[in-house]
Amino acid sequence: MASTLEPTVSMESDPPQGLATLTGVQILATGAYAPSNTVGNQDLVELGYDADWIVQRTGIQERRRATEDQATSDLAVVAAENCLQQAGLSPDQLDLILIGTMTPDTPTPSTACHVQRRIGAKCAAVDLNAACAGFMYALVTGMQFIKTGCYRHVLAIGADVMSRVVDPKDQKTFPLFGDAAGAVLLGKGENRQGLISYTLGADGEGGQLICLPGGGSRERLTTKTLEEARQYIRMDGRPVFKWAVRFLADTVLDVLRGTKLTPSDLDLVVFHQANMRIIDSAVSDLGLDRNKVLVNLDRYGNTSAASIPLVLDEAHRQGRIRRGDHVLLCGFGAGLAWGTAVVRW
Question: What are the beta bridge partners of residue 344?
């Protein structure tokens, strides 16, 4: 994809087909948590991995790993509490908890229900599974509930313990993933705030490119499936990489068509932290200012649904996001599923 791509800017009041707006809503606070256990590339050398290869191919230097007694809800609870503390809001003021996750504590009840109980909330709670795009689906869904006036405060969380679903023997996936959780508190905002352009999408034809075949109703866990390691993620890396590189530039330009903005007008950009080469390609194709593109992939790895809120919380607490800023968010992953939005903070 050429680096000279220029966006077609829409001057119409209605967004182009496939895009939507969701304003009058804002992100009130952020929170995050990653386990203290750090696994560096040198630690993986003992398992037969090449530390230099990992950096060259992914940009990842280290990742966080949950302890054996930590589940997804354990990480999500801390992220939620950090978010509520920043907002000065008590759990009983929440109306809804949404969690994007592909690694729930249990098939049922939902991880959101576990979190609701543990933080002392009395609200509705539900999980959404869109893999690495899960937080974007939770964000948009939560904002819709605020926009309708049904709810005043929604907690949208992205959380995954990916170390539970990657095979230590699979050199294509095991070094990539880390464990973390991130949260945002949503509430009513000014008319100009919120998602000034967004899209959610999926292409089930690509479902087998990234999948976890064992453990569901299609293929329950048996001695045979465990012996074949079908309880772990399987990824066809080359076509996934090619799709992601092509997809990122296209989806950003599509979403910007719903605004009067160009890539250079964006104040900050947060891509799903999947692979540094994918991010670098998008930066080049879109002509983005690299200083505006937030990255923590090198320190946390690919944390799936947690990656975007994890970056947002770092930036927010560092004072890098200001009122009125245009922040682009883009999540993508298994499904294939994606969500891209321009947030006016």
Answer: 194, 326
User: Which CATH architecture fits 18-344?
Assistant: 3-Layer(aba) Sandwich (3.40)
The four Cα atoms 52, 54, 57, 63 give a dihedral, to 10 degrees, of -130
311 to 24, 38, 58, 118, 208: CA distances (angstroms): 24, 17, 17, 25, 28
Kindly state the DSSP code that residue 215 receives in the 8-state scheme: S
pTM for the whole structure: 0.93
How far is C-alpha 68 from the geometric centre of its chain's CA atoms? 23
Q: CA-to-CA distance for 339 and 286, rounded, in angstroms?
A: 18
Report whether 139 contacts 200 (CB < 8 A): no
CA distances from 267 to 35, 68, 158 (A): 30, 40, 23
Coil, helix or strand for 283?
A: helix
Contact 36, 204 (CB under 8 A): no
pLDDT tens for 79-121 read: 999 999 999 999 999 999 999 999 999 999 999 999 999 999 9
Conformational region of residue 101, where left means phi above 0, alpha means psi within -120 to 50, and beta covers everything else:
beta
For 54-71, write each residue's pLDDT tens digit.
999 999 999 999 999 999
pLDDT tens-digit readout, 285-333: 999 999 999 999 999 999 999 999 999 999 999 999 999 999 999 999 9
Those residues whose C-beta lies under 8 Å from the C-beta of residue 48, and which sit 6 or more positions away, are: 171
Q: Catalytic residue numbers? A: 132, 272, 302
Q: Considering the chain, what is the average pLDDT of its residues? A: 94
CA distances to 55, 59, 113, 310 from 300, rounded to whole Å, are 13, 11, 26, 9
CA distances from 75 to 32, 87, 183, 204 (A): 8, 19, 10, 29
Does the pLDDT value for residue 9 go beyond 50? no
- The DSSP element (H or E) to which 328 belongs, if any, is strand 326-333
What average pLDDT score do residues 260-276 get?
97
